[in-house]
């Protein structure tokens, strides 16, 4: 482990560590991740927190090898579903999630020194760990960062700053976009990457291509198969063998296609040219949930990517966007852009209310409020923000807290197992299965899954049931099965191979009761869009959701940013379970309101509407009773179907309201004609339709504008105006002295003239027809 730039600070580091926390500012590739933990182990047992799983296993293996040791002896690691370490291991590399769970168990009492590596990435769990460690104040801290403000970190951690200068060669930067302000784009990406790679391969040296995700890597791999170089993938889901190919020198010229896991922690040898797509998949909030969507990278990330070239000799970076593209300066910390439910639960299970911690980022108040409300509703925290027994049971499960809550809320063993297996699939980022495009395959699939329920297919594929019509990704299947097995073991349930038979309806109704916000209905006029009243999702391009279904439980979503950024993000449903509309009503999710009355076969019936998410999902007609009966009788009167004065009464009340608005010194509240008649009916003791025969028009005289004023007021402030071939409705706005006349009907195309309208002296007159508004002068 010699000849790394970090060696220059060794003596300073070892001298300072026993007495103070340290912030080490050093570029990627200086050796900080591999050297500092070994040096620090001279002063106690070291826990190294790496943002990514692939970095944990790679670094642990590399450091163990340099110490002539096997992984798990002197140096080990622990990630989700895998670990190699003992109680005697000096240095353990872990992900932030593992470290948080260990903190919740014993406050990391088995370690003396904690190193937060690559802290500039500002992962939400790393920020939380920093706050917890400072609050607990029992560990010596080492914080490494390549780009963050070292003075700010020094103040936050009460630490001394040590800077390590890296050795690098110059890197020439070029831009492929014709427009200098062109933002990074996914459009035609594989062809643009292929063109840049073929150019780069004309020189010797390896090529590193930064792409946003596994899907784009696969597309580019296919496009580059004839390029003549060795093609290697590098992302979180690659095998150990594939990762080793990326991280070791090869006899052939190599092209490494990587996500932003290659920005930090991992050093890829022999890279001379970097090709930067300028894209990444990044989390942000949408409708109160954390979602993953495509984003342009920040300028800081662009510098990090460029720095991967120029390690062994002068290098080159080709950016597939414009030189002056308006990238943000830094990637916002996850604490500021993600929802905080899981973070708040983690803090609570570690023994601290989230808001009591000193964090490097200010917590958004709205996010804190939403997280608190959710966890209280789940009964996962108490009123002091600390974890309940239920919250502590949810936290260890390796999935989103919503799915953990759903699992714990299932009433039967079979439903609980179904929820576990579905959650395991959804928590695995890649696509588990795809349907072949042939019509025959579709017919086979529909015969097997008549409701075409994505959730049922996901569960069946995980359990290895025979689903001949679909193509299964075995790597994703293995990952999902690991998650399922871990949860099943934690809850003392049988292995997925011995799963209880799924009772679909029973399970889905249980889900609705536990998480009603997952229920979506089609929009009436846009059948491809679904809403739950708070957010909207669209049917994905590959969705098999049948046209005849009008409602679904939406378990999974995919989010795609629009051309103008995240504010135009569209959400697509990726896992839908069709349900009948009547379930929504039967399970008490709909609102029931009276929608007036209708006359059928000489009988007045009350219309009762059941609505959900703004859509009427059911109408029923019944004989009116109580309040509904009063409404029905009032409508009979108002519509002139019992007494002839309904229209004149309505007009009198409208003019009274207008009189209060424009003339009264102390205006009285507006009166609704229907409400006034209801009150009058109650005063008269009317309880049935037959009782109307006992009253007459004189009982409904409205004491409004005095008779001596009424006619003149109506002439001065008409509510309607009729011109030649034009009918108008009039509104008055006293505060701005404006009369608004609305087009109601008539064949006239020209606007009304000022001279043919009432005088309205001192008032501004405007004319509205549809969305067009003009001043009449």
From TrEMBL:
Key words, A-Z: ATP-binding, Helicase, Hydrolase, Nucleotide-binding
| InterPro entries cross-referenced by the UniProt entry | DEAD/DEAH_box_helicase_dom (IPR011545), Helicase_ATP-bd (IPR014001), Helicase_C-like (IPR001650), P-loop_NTPase (IPR027417)
Q: What region holds the Helicase ATP-binding domain?
A: 13-166
Q: Which domain of life is it from?
A: Bacteria
Q: Name one Pfam family in it.
A: Helicase_C
Q: Which residues form the Helicase C-terminal domain?
A: 192-358
Any one Gene Ontology MF annotation carried by this entry is: nucleic acid binding
Recorded hits in PANTHER family, A to Z, give: ATP-DEPENDENT RNA HELICASE HRPB (PTHR43519:SF1)
Protein name as it appears in the record: DEAD/DEAH box helicase
| Species assigned in the record | Veronia pacifica
């Amino acid at each position: 482990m010699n000849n790394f730039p970090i060696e220059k600070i060794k003596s300073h580091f070892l001298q300072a560590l026993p007495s103070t926390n340290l912030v080490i500012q050093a570029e990627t590739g200086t050796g900080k991740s591999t050297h500092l933990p070994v040096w620090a182990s001279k002063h106690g047992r070291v826990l190294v927190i790496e943002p990514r799983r692939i970095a944990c296993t790679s670094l642990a293996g590399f450091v163990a090898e340099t110490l002539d040791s096997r992984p798990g002896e002197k140096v080990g690691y622990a990630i989700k579903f895998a670990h190699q370490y003992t109680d005697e291991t000096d240095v353990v590399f872990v992900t932030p999630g593992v470290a948080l769970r260990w903190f919740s168990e014993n406050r990391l009492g088995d370690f003396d020194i904690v190193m937060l590596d690559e802290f500039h990435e500002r992962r939400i769990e790393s920020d939380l760990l920093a706050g917890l460690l400072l609050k607990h104040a029992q560990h010596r801290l080492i914080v490494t960062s390549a780009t963050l403000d070292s003075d700010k970190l020094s103040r936050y951690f009460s630490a001394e700053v040590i800077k390590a200068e890296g050795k690098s060669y110059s890197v020439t930067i070029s831009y492929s976009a014709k427009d200098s302000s062109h933002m990074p784009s996914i459009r035609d990406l594989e062809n643009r990457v292929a063109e840049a790679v073929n150019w780069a391969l004309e020189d010797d040296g390896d090529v590193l291509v930064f792409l946003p995700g596994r899907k784009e890597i696969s597309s580019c791999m296919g496009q580059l198969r004839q390029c003549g170089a060795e093609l290697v993938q590098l992302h979180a889901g690659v095998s150990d063998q594939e990762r080793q190919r990326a991280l070791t020198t090869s006899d052939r010229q190599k092209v490494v296609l990587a996500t932003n896991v290659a920005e930090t922690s991992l050093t890829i040898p022999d890279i001379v040219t970097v090709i930067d797509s300028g894209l990444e998949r990044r989390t942000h909030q949408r409708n109160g949930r954390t979602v993953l969507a495509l984003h342009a990278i920040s300028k800081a990330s662009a510098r990090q990517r460029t720095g991967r070239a120029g390690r062994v000799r002068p290098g080159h970076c080709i950016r597939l966007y414009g030189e002056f593209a308006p990238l943000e300066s830094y990637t916002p910390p996850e604490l500021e852009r993600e929802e905080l439910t899981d973070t708040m639960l983690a803090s609570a299970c570690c023994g601290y209310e989230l808001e009591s911690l000193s964090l490097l980022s200010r917590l958004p108040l709205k996010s804190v409020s939403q997280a608190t409300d959710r966890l209280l509703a789940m009964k996962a925290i108490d009123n002091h923000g600390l974890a309940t027994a239920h919250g502590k049971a949810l936290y260890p499960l390796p999935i989103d807290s919503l799915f953990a809550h759903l699992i714990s809320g299932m009433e039967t063993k079979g439903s609980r197992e179904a929820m576990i297996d579905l959650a395991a699939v959804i928590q695995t980022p890649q696509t588990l299965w795809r349907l072949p495009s042939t019509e025959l395959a579709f017919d086979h699939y529909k015969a097997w899954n008549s409701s075409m329920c994505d959730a049922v297919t996901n569960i069946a594929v995980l359990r290895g049931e025979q689903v001949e019509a679909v193509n299964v990704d075995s790597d994703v299947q293995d990952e999902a099965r690991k998650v399922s097995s871990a949860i099943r073991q934690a809850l003392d349930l049988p292995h997925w191979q011995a799963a209880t038979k799924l009772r679909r309806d029973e399970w889905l109704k249980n889900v609705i009761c536990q998480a009603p916000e997952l229920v979506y209905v089609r929009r009436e006029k846009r059948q491809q869009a679904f809403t739950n009243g708070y957010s909207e999702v669209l049917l994905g391009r590959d969705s098999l959701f049948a046209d005849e279904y009008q409602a679904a439980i939406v378990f999974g979503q995919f989010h795609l940013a629009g051309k103008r950024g995240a504010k135009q993000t569209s959400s697509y449903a990726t896992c839908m379970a069709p349900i009948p509309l009547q379930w929504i009503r039967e399970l008490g999710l709909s609102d029931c309101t009276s929608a007036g009355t209708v006359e059928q076969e000489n009988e007045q019936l009350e219309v009762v509407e059941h609505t959900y998410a703004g859509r009427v999902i059911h109408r029923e007609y019944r004989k009116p009773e109580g309040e509904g009966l009063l409404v029905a009788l009032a409508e009979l009167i108002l519509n002139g179907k019992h007494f002839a004065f309904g229209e004149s009464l309505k007009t009198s009340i409208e003019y009274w309201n207008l009189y209060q608005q424009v003339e009264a010194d102390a205006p009285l509240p507006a009166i609704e004609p229907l409400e006034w008649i209801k009150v009058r009916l109650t005063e008269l003791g009317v309880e049935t339709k037959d009782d109307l025969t006992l009253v007459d028009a004189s009982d409904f005289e409205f004491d409004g504008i005095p008779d001596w004023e009424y006619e003149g007021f109506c002439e001065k402030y008409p509510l309607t105006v009729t011109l030649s071939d034009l009918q108008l409705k009039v509104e008055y706005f006293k505060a701005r002295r404006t009369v608004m006349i609305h087009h109601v009907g008539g064949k006239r195309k020209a606007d009304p003239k000022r001279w043919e309208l009432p005088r309205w002296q001192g008032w501004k007159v405007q004319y509205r027809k549809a969305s067009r508004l003009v001043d009449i002068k």
